[in-house]
Amino acid sequence: MFTIEHEFDASVITLVDEGQSPLREDVTVQAFDSEVTFEQWDPRTDKVARITLSPEQLRDLTAALNLPEGIYRSAPK
User: In whole angstroms, what is the distance from residue 13 CA to residue 34 CA?
Assistant: First the structure.
């Protein structure tokens, strides 16, 4: 399951793990013009883990999810 909310300066997507146990904490994705941030609560450290990607990194990640093993270079835009 996931939710999408459009705020003033970002689109916020929350991914909820509904799979089989062990379930993971929800993941929040905040998409801004200049960056995309992924956040997830880590119960081991009692902190939110955060990863920030550039739009280009997100584009490469999206492409990589659909490619076979190998080394690739995306074309600059």
Answer: 16
In the block, tokens 């997507």 appear at 13
Contact 13, 26 (CB under 8 A): no
pTM of the model: 0.81
Residues recorded for the chain: 77
Lowest-pLDDT range of 4-13, 23-32, 63-72: 63-72
Distance (Å, whole) CA 75 – CA 77: 6
Dihedral (Cα; 65, 18, 6, 32), 10-degree rounding? -40
Taking only the tens place, the pLDDT of each residue in 49-75 is 999 999 999 988 988 888 888 888 877
